[in-house]
Design goal:
Distance between the termini: 14 Å
Order of helices and strands: HHHHHH
Strand content: under 5%
Number of strands: 0
Length: 107
């Protein structure tokens, strides 16, 4: 299902409604994470260690809300093509997991 939806997004793009929902979700998560001091400090520390720009919550939210359909269309081919990677935690043996996955994705 995920593979099919990603292929559809790549071929057809996403709708303005889908983008609006995604932006609202991400912006809300940013604001909510900022309400917890430990979470906010962890994010700031991670950004510092990784050499990322340190942005205020307002700046992060502003950047998310500024994303356009054109922006998504520009990065979609880079992010939605190539061979996907999957991780599985299962009680089954590796060969059995591969067979079960192949039957699901139609290989």
């Amino acid at each position: 299902i995920i593979h099919r939806e990603l292929a559809k997004a790549l071929e057809e793009g996403i709708t303005a409604e889908e983008l609006a929902r995604a932006k609202e979700t991400v912006a809300s998560q940013i604001v909510l994470r900022g309400e917890y001091t430990q979470t906010r400090m962890g994010a700031l520390g991670r950004n510092e260690v990784l050499g990322c720009e340190l942005l205020s919550i307002d700046d992060q939210e502003r950047r998310v809300r500024a994303v356009s359909l054109d922006d998504v269309a520009k990065v979609a081919p880079r992010l939605l093509t190539g061979t996907p990677t999957i991780s599985v935690i299962s009680p089954f043996e590796p060969d059995d997991v591969e067979a079960r996955l192949a039957s699901v994705v139609g290989e």
